[in-house]
Amino acid sequence: MNLGTELPSESRVGQGTKDDAGVPQGDIFDVLSNARRRCALHYIKQNGDRWVELRELVDYVAAWENDTSIEDLESSDRKCVYTALRQSHLPRMEEAGIIEYDTMRGDLKLTPEARQVELYLERVPRNDITWGGYYFGLSAVSLGLVSVTWSGIFPFSELSGLTLSVLLAGLFVLSAAVHTYQSKKNRLGSDRYELES
Description:
Layout: E1 10-12, E2 16-18, H1 25-32, H2 35-46, E3 52-53, H3 54-65, H4 75-95, E4 99-102, E5 107-110, H5 112-115, H6 131-151, H7 161-185
Antiparallel strand pairs: 1-2, 3-5, 4-5
Helix pairs in contact: 2-3, 3-4, 6-7
């Protein structure tokens, strides 16, 4: 399920609204607001229903943070990440209902509710527009084309209704295909997702 596309079904004071999966949206946004939690969640989602060992999660997050391989990690890097994950980040993610965390065994996995939530981040570069703005602009251009064709302004007056319809439908289909690709790329747990700090 896509965050932001469903109307909220119930609220929890101070924690935002719940989506159909039962995870409060405010909690999801809180989890995603921290780079270390995004990295941990990305790794956990990539492992699906499998229990992830805390040790392997620490190695993955520490390697990502230090931009190195797991083999080249220093023990101090691992210790810093281990402490932060165990004392702060994992309990917060468990409290939010996103992960199940067995503190005795040091294992964790996504909750059934969190598996139903598509966690993604739409990244918009500084001088770029959002997809909503893009579709609004495309719709305005389409209306403009229809208007000048209907008004009989040359060379648009030479376009048949069918040709114009196919052209406009093609623009929207192409845009939707690119948008779908970008959304999959920006989804946590996707092989194409690029973690940023």
